[in-house]
Design goal:
Length: 225
């Protein structure tokens, strides 16, 4: 089973995923998606997120190639939106690499679920951040419905929420602020996070025509943190 945690930056996705893994440690049935990357000779020592992402870029690429036949329409949708709306040339290529990595890691997780539950805190659903939040380009229900219909879905989605003022405080206190929020004023950070809240609430309501990939209540939990 793949369980993906979604929500705004600072909502507590990673903390919740790590706590679930800790409680399941004795049975060894639950792992983090990052463990799929580090479970290679010479990589188990890695803890730095940037180093892990670089390793994931390489390790997940063959899985991305395998998944492309199934998920290629989503990749093309994402790449096209980034081509038109990415806030900079650097962001356009960096976010595309992010999409490739997330789809590849999702495929790694899909192949691991026969043995374990994979807990994902930076999964392919969070690519919605790059597609809809980190630019001022407009989007509507049609865009969100298409995203929800095309994106590779986990078996369960856990929507982690927190009050906006708490999200802002956490974002401003982070020792490793996200590039898109670094150096921004409190009001600018609040505006960007409010856009993210609006996005995730919109995705929660999205109703793709293929009900097997639904975002309905059966698939979404919304714990407050």
């Amino acid at each position: 089973m793949i369980v993906e945690f979604i929500g705004c930056s600072g909502a507590g996705k990673t903390s919740l995923a790590m706590e679930v893994r800790r409680r399941c440690h004795a049975s060894r049935r639950a792992i983090l998606s990052v463990d799929l990357v580090r479970d290679h000779a010479g990589l188990r020592w890695m803890t730095d997120p940037s180093m892990i992402n670089l390793a994931a870029d390489v390790i997940s690429f063959p899985s991305f190639v395998r998944a492309y036949r199934r998920d290629g329409e989503f990749v093309r949708f994402a790449f096209d939106r980034l081509r038109r709306y990415a806030p900079s040339t650097f962001a356009k290529y960096n976010y595309r690499l992010n999409i490739v990595r997330k789809v590849g890691v999702h495929e790694l997780a899909r192949r691991a679920t026969a043995r374990r539950t994979v807990l994902v805190d930076e999964g392919v659903l969070l690519s919605a951040y790059q597609l809809f939040v980190y630019s001022d380009a407009p989007y509507g229900d049609v865009d969100l419905d298409r995203f929800a219909r095309l994106v590779p879905m986990p078996d369960r989605v856990v929507y982690v929420r927190a009050p906006l003022d708490l999200l802002v405080e956490r974002a401003l206190r982070r020792p490793d602020p996200r590039r898109e929020l670094a150096g921004r004023s409190r009001n600018q950070v609040a505006d960007r996070l409010a856009r993210a809240v609006e996005l995730f609430e919109g995705l929660r309501r999205a109703s793709p025509s293929d009900r097997s990939r639904s975002w309905g209540p059966r698939r979404v939990a919304s714990p407050r943190s």
